[in-house]
Amino acid sequence: MKTLEKVNYKGFILPLAVGVILWCITPLRPAGLSAPAWEMFAIFVATIVGCITKPLPIGGTTLIGLIVTVLVGLAPIKDIADPKTGKVTTGILSAFSNSASWLIAMAFIMAYGISKTGLGNRIAYWMIKRFGKKSIGIGYAITGLELILGALIPSNSARTGGVVWPVTESISKDYDSYPNDPSRKKIGAYLSFMAFHANILSTALFITGAAPNMVASQMAEQKNYNMTWISWFSAAVVPVLVATIVIPLVIYKIFPPEIKETPNAEKWATDHLKEMGPVTKPEKIMSMVFLLAIILWVLSGVFDIPQLDSTFVAFLAVGLLLLTGVLTMKDALNQTGAWNILIWLSILVFMASKLISFGFIDWFSKTIQTSLHGISWQVVLVVLVILMFYTHYFFASGTAHMTALYLPFLSVAVATGAPLGLSAMLLAFTGAFNASTTHYANGPASILATTGYIKQGEWWKYNFILGIIYLLIFGVIGTLWMKVIGIW
To answer: Across the strands, what pairs with 88?
Structure first.
């Protein structure tokens, strides 16, 4: 007998209450703000709260928000042009023409090829074989592995859950280090914590490193700042390189493994590579296609060639993988994460654009600018970065956090005189490393904080220390580096 799918109806209570309350006080809205602007704000906030309480998966939650937007008359189904003025009212169907959403959807499909061919595991075993003679060496190997996978796999949760955590767990148990046991401190706790921070670094290095990065790029575009694959990488490479050297050392000092020498790791990796055999033809093709995509992404950021649009490059790569038989159309259609992100990212960006077109963001930035009159932009930007970091304690989703605060914070920074490029990139990077807060900060945190290798108190305590280090590295070194390369 068929039954209905489970729906978390209790999860609707808070977003519905927030939305209704905000909607009902529309007549009491601040001066200078139109009714449609406030009503759109009410729906947007309710949707973001829904992304946190999760009555439905994020794709379903945002879809409900979009439906409400149409039902209350804040957006039509399709674009409508006013016959008198020629002004076009953007319809909801235009939301799904968002290039960034399609880029990351195609990147998800490409990433499946890394898993299907076994290329990701081969890279992991090779890294451990090369650098795994000491426990700190394995820590650096895991970091290097994550940085490589950051360019190949656009989901931070997929990188951790699909490749890095299985490797980390296998090495830990090979040294008789088990979860929920005193032996966890032999090496398992250290490697698990290192894997998490390696994921943070890989997320910060690439614009395709995680969904919140793409949200930031789309929100920045609303303020006429364009983030490309190469511009993001260029801005991130030096602070990430510094953090890649510093973070493993700090973790090794404050949360050290009992086992310092790990000669068995090299043999473990060698044995796994032997089991895999020679590099296969699908792995070779996958490598070449992804290398081609990286080269074209770099060129698209250097030269203004329409055919090298970054989203088209992703389509091209998927097409090549289909033509060569590395992937099938069934493989592509089965990547539910790709199609899910296509829906929710497109909808959230569309709703944010409506806040702009109705004048809410402009009103908000001018209001804050007035209240901060006389305060230097440097102080304002520092405060905004710190707020972007520490307010993540209240969010269980990097995407929801970025969607809720990035554009308003960027607007405030620019309104007080802060350089657009510096503000856009610093706030975007903060949205990547603010996962160094809680055990529920993002997907990788939820995976690695619940393995039994790290106690919750340890997670919060050591992450608090490392969070300060991230703020200093990106805030000081990152700011100076972006000055050198002309971002501001």
So the answer is: 81
Between CA 90 and CA 77 the distance in angstroms is 8
349 close to 95: Cβ distance less than 8 angstroms: yes
Please tell me what DSSP assigns to residue 477. Answer: I
Distance CA 150, CA 164 (A): 11
Q: What is the pLDDT of residues 299-352, one digit of tens each?
A: 776 666 767 777 888 899 899 999 999 999 999 999 887 888 788 878 887 888
Work out whether the CA dihedral 44, 78, 80, 72 comes out positive or negative: negative
> Whose CA is closest to 133, among 274, 264, 269?
264
| Identity of the residue numbered 487 | I
CA distance 332 to 341: 14
d(Cα 212, Cα 199) in Å, to the nearest integer?
14
* CA dihedral over 303, 481, 222, 93, signed as positive or negative: positive
pLDDT in tens, 110-156: 878 877 888 877 877 887 787 777 888 888 988 988 898 888 777 78
Cα–Cα distance, 426 to 378 (Å, whole number): 12
Helix 336-357 crosses helix 58-71 at what angle (to 10 degrees)? 40
User: Are the CB atoms for 294 and 81 separated by under 8 Å?
Assistant: no
What are the φ/ψ torsions at residue 403 (nearest 5 degrees)?
A: -65, -40
